[in-house]
Design a protein that fits this description.
By secondary structure, this protein is of the alpha+beta class. It has one domain. 16% of the residues lie in helices and 30% in strands. The chain contains 2 helices and 10 strands. A 3-stranded mixed β-sheet has the order 1-7-6, with no helix packed on it.
């Protein structure tokens, strides 16, 4: 039988109490998640000219009689991942998730893998919409169409 001295037991107990006290007083990292319907709402993104809209419905349903009937997201610069973007600011992690907004069908839903159509509303810009995150996979260049809001 192995015996532990009283002195070793006391030291182990003091270590456990000290460790528990440190863990209880440590400040946990803060995390915040926000839903936005355009990338200009992300604090660290600098928006440039351009205006690309992704809709939750097909082209025929998204706009009818010159009016938008579908929920949409708007982007004014490159987007690496349409699921969202995150960044540490000190010990806080802030995440922005892209959702369809503007009312209509699909409003409030996450837009990644749910966009059914796209419109380039900037006459001087040429966009490519990629199938995969990180600008991977096949891509499509949407044509320009004027829509009224």
């Amino acid at each position: 039988m192995k015996l532990i001295s009283l002195r070793a037991k006391t030291a182990a107990g003091a270590f456990a109490v000290t460790t528990a006290a440190l863990l209880a007083t440590a400040t946990p990292a803060q995390a915040a998640t926000y839903n936005v319907s355009e990338n200009c709402d992300v604090s660290w993104i600098t928006c440039s000219d351009g205006d690309l809209w992704l809709f939750s419905n097909s082209k025929d349903i998204a706009s009818q009689d010159g009016y938008i009937k579908s929920a949409y997201t708007k982007f004014y610069s490159n987007v690496h991942d349409h699921w969202g973007t995150s960044q540490y600011q000190g010990s806080s992690l802030t995440t922005y998730r892209y959702v369809f907004g503007g009312g209509g069908n699909g409003n409030g839903q996450y837009m990644k893998n749910k966009a059914a159509s796209v419109r380039n509303r900037a006459p001087d810009d040429s966009y490519h919409v990629y199938f995969n995150s990180g600008y991977g996979g096949t891509s499509q260049s949407p044509g320009q169409e004027a829509l009224e809001r």
